[in-house]
Specification:
5 helices, 2 domains, 78% helix, disordered C terminus
Length: 135
């Protein structure tokens, strides 16, 4: 059994930066492509998927090196579990798909949506209050 004597603060800082770095790597094709004015989303998605798969495998591989397990089996296990999680997330996204193309919304659209929803919530609260006062 491994005993962890490190501080929770240090663990939190390391976890934050690991998530930030590993989360940013698959976005690199989109960032570079946007900088050059290219708009080939399919190609970027394939490259980002390959980067993500390599990250998951290397994460499992590194974990096995630290713990002393079979490196390749651990890498494939992390890749499989991560791929499953991505698949479930994709299916949930398809299930809740709307007519909006969220990625195309500008900050003006976001402000419009925010104030529009805010006014609808106020209307709902007013009608609820009137209904309660009626009783």
């Amino acid at each position: 059994m491994v005993v962890d004597d490190s501080s929770p603060l240090w663990g939190g800082v390391v976890t934050f930066f690991a998530f930030a770095i590993f989360g940013l790597l698959p976005l690199i094709p989109y960032i570079i492509g946007a900088g050059f004015g290219h708009d080939d989303q399919t190609q970027y998605t394939v490259i980002a998927t390959i980067i993500g798969a390599l990250e998951l495998f290397s994460l499992g591989f590194a974990k096995a090196m630290l713990v002393g397990l079979n490196k390749y089996i651990s890498g494939l296990e992390s890749l499989g579990l991560g791929g499953f999680a991505v698949g479930v997330g994709y299916l949930i996204g398809l299930a809740f798909k709307t007519d909006w193309n969220i990625s195309k919304l500008t900050h003006i659209n976001w402000l419009y949506l925010y104030f529009n929803l805010k006014s609808k919530i106020k209307k709902l609260k007013r009608t609820k209050i009137k209904y309660i006062n009626f009783l």
